[in-house]
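chain below, 362 aa
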Amino acid sequence: MNLSCLLVLLALAGQPEPAANAHPLKWDKLPPLPDREGFASMFAGTSGGSLVVAGGANFPRGFPWEGGIKAWYDSIFILDRPDGQWRVADEKLPRPLAYGVSVTWNNAVVCIGGSDLKRHYTDVFAMRLVDGRIRFEPLPSLPEPCANSCGCLVGSTVFVAGGMSSPEATTALRTFWSLDLSAPKDKLQWKVLEPWPGLDRSHAVAASLNGSFYLISGFRWKAGEKGEPVRLSPFQTDAYRYTPKDGGGTWQRLVDVPRAVGAAPSPAMTAGASQIYVIGGIDHSVVRPDPSTHPGFPLDVFCYDAAADKWNNVGEMPAGSSRVTAASAVWQDRYLIINGERAPGRRSPDIHAARIAEDKQR
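prediction:
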């Protein structure tokens, strides 16, 4: 072998291998929500064939470093077609609410926990679109109040991990709960499960793939000089898989994410037999002392290959489109990133839609 060939082989050996069947994402947009500011951490899902989003929070009268006060909302928005127009439902959430977990189950949007300005909640309820109107259905309350959790549906069971117990909390939760939504009404009950073999966290990313629950990245907290919650840096890069089993599931530590992806859209996008796509998210390296100069969040798209236990960078979001604390939903063969923060204190009404090349998204 001559020297040129050897150098080429050595260079190739240093390059990351693509995940099996992983593809860059194709991006487009749905009509933006009819709100100038947009919202962080809405509830989102599908019912009656329509996209239903609700709640959320923003800063309508000035950014937080300018003394602006965060506001929470109770409005419900409905989009019947990807090329249609949003309409505002006559019905409203039971209270202004954001930063909870939402999943779609049995043609309804299940809303779990969340917060307002003063407290975090245990409330769980479903929103169902029937004859153009929203109907609410109560579900069993969480074991304790929480917001900024992550969660997703695995089969008929919703899992919720971590979060914060109150607006003043200076440590995150290390809690893991499940609710089998297919159980008879008189047997619907949250189960308290063994948590992951790692540290407490909020704002983690959840994913559901091949009957397992995935927990990825997140933030930890401490008390600041005035007793206020302050994020610990660096942020978490660890990841875990929970495989449910009769009588109790098992956790497995996975390879770390290449960088922290706290508050990335959750649940994450999945595709094929073994791919999880985590889009954007916050790494401590992008935190700025002066938030007014923040350049926006990272655009990286990471794909986890569950078969190989390996992460790969498979591209970027379109410039300026990265969002955190954004709800996600799957609708009309698209993975949707719904509003969210485009920079600290700055929301967006946009809805970004991703598809897998060759239509392999499920």
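The two ends are 45 Å apart (CA to CA). The helical segments are 3-13.
thats it, cya
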